[in-house]
Design goal:
It is globular, with a radius of gyration of 21 Å. The strands form 4 sheets. A 3-stranded parallel β-sheet has the order 1-2-5. α3 packs across α4. By secondary structure, it is an alpha/beta fold. It contains 6 helices and 9 strands.
């Protein structure tokens, strides 16, 4: 969280197109020992305003929530179990925080990785700030948009409008 505060301050200085604040995505796995601090950090208004926060929840965690069980928290450096928490309590803190501040969101990370189109490249850990694009570690999000209504042209042969795939290919490139 301390690093995120520094990055948030830097994002205040570097504005997108000189106008819009930076949009950053903070995602922490639900089995990280600092998860409760992460979940509640934005309950104090004005903190991390350039970040969207989401918790990467696992199938194991959701099963523990439904069964009122504990679940393990893992040390990210060693991968060993650090401690255990009551899943239902953590879930309730997420719900309360989301109600108070609108964050965190949830990323069902096991489901996302089940549909990962490039599993040989690594596991998806996050999305871009608006949640449209799953990302591998250290990937940046560069979104582009194409106005599809401008990709329609009259097809003389067919006597109707059709998608101009040649033009769309050039635009996308």
């Amino acid at each position: 969280i301390a690093f995120m505060r520094v990055f948030n301050a830097a994002s205040d200085t570097v504005r997108q197109a000189g106008v819009r604040d930076g949009a950053n995505m903070g995602v922490l796995r639900v089995d990280h020992p600092d998860i409760l601090d992460f979940i509640t950090v934005k309950q104090e208004m004005g903190l991390l305003t350039n970040f969207n926060l989401s918790v990467a929840v696992t199938d194991e965690f959701m099963q523990a929530v439904m069964k009122h069980r504990d679940y393990p928290l893992y040390n990210p450096k060693t991968g060993r179990e650090h401690s255990r928490s009551k899943a239902r309590d953590v879930f309730n803190v997420m719900a309360e925080s989301a109600w108070r501040s609108g964050e965190p969101g949830l990323i069902f990370i096991d489901k996302v990785n089940a549909t990962n189109p490039t599993p040989s490249e690594g596991m998806i850990e996050s999305t871009n700030p608006c949640g449209e694009l799953p990302l591998l570690p250290y990937e940046s999000c560069i979104l582009g948009s194409v106005n599809l209504s401008r990709m329609v042209a009259w097809d003389e042969k067919a006597g109707r409008t059709a998608i101009d795939f040649d033009r769309m290919g050039e635009i996308v490139k």
